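Slide 14.
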Amino acid sequence: MQTHSLNFWPLALFLTPCHVLCKRCGARGSGAAGRSRLLHCNAVNEFGVPSAHEGTSGVGWGVGILPYMEQNNIYQLFNPLLPLTDAANKPFLRSQIQGCKCPSDPQPNFFAIVEEGGGAALAELPSANYIGCFGPESLDDCGLSPGNLPVMADGTCKGGCTFYHNSSVRIAWITDGTSNTFMVGERKTRADLDWHTSWPGMIAEGEEAFQRVCGSADHVPNDPLHHFDDFSSVHTGGAQFCLGDGSVRFISENMDKGVYRGLATIQGGEVSGDF
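Slide 15: predicted structure.
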């Protein structure tokens, strides 16, 4: 297998692996942990946080951290020169990673993603519960025509946080502070509404394709009016988030909406205070 050139590895150094979100632990403290976090920050500052999805394959950010989750055998199944839906990548898509699932969420092992608007199944994807933070903008607006925000003139859908199409965010760009910025959050499964999340990446032309790997902070967790693209959980009172400094926080569903949305930007200039 050929090695791809996408800069995924800095995020693997920087982020706590997915499964700690349900174990409520993170990279904190001084000594070795503090030095490790400094290395994380320096690495991401130089190379950038990988995009939510990019390239010909549509590969998502979760693929790059697989070797650092002791999942190198699954990582080696992926051919980045081919679309995720290519037959050669089918063994990769049939892989299960328990560390990317919340043990409390009753998700199926796999789900079928169909063509946008309904139609033929394009692929069967492994389930997950953790998604990159796109920003406070609605991911549904990524379907707008170029030049209508959040869609740029070149067709890229750009959110206000760390994960969006072809993004490469540096630590230096997170002027709101890494301890005040969401990186990854939790989303529950609703099979009756086809609310399924995955980790491999975006399937082009698929139903709500962006939303499978990214989340929006336009509603607080578990808001009664929330949409599929929002963060949510089966936990009482809120959902788990990993922040830019590697810490993991349980974010209350009763948090002020303005504060919550501010945590989903890297350069918004909001004052979050104690949350």
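Speaker note: The chain has seven helices and nine strands.
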